[in-house]
Design brief:
The protein has helices at about 5-20, 35-55, 65-70, 100-115; strands at about 25, 60-65, 70, 85. It is mostly helical. Helix 1 (about 5-20) runs parallel beside helix 2.
């Protein structure tokens, strides 16, 4: 799949949600310790464009887990947060989160929605 196709699929989905008066909550792809630097650069590139697309839909919520779950990868791009934090033990195997990691994700999603709709 190309980035153009990826964004086109998202556009169709977001349009359908808007037509149905459903508020989209879109989550950035998570950090991934076992991903190569090239894969993570692609992730960052595509997610930047997806975030910009989501921002064009009134009421949509963008959720980014990087600062809470990710950690810097030596040898990667400056400022990257590509690897899953091992402390407080969010990383089960470099690809999957632990229960604590998933709990943290739920908290971040909840906070993003509350910030958008309650704490304005």
């Amino acid at each position: 799949m190309t980035k153009t196709q990826f964004l086109a699929y998202w556009t169709v989905s977001l349009d359908a949600l808007a037509a149905a008066n459903i508020i989209p909550v879109v989550c950035k792809v998570l950090p991934w310790t076992n991903g190569t630097n090239g894969q993570m650069q692609t992730r960052d590139d595509w997610m930047t464009d997806l975030e910009a697309l989501v921002a064009t839909y009134t009421g949509s919520v963008w959720v980014d887990f990087d600062t809470a779950i990710g950690k810097f990868r030596a040898g990667g791009d400056e400022g990257n947060l590509w690897d899953i934090q091992t402390v407080p033990d969010y990383d089960a195997d470099g690809v999957h989160l632990t229960l604590l990691g998933y709990t943290k994700m739920a908290e971040i999603i909840d906070a993003a929605i509350l910030t958008k709709y309650i704490l304005l």
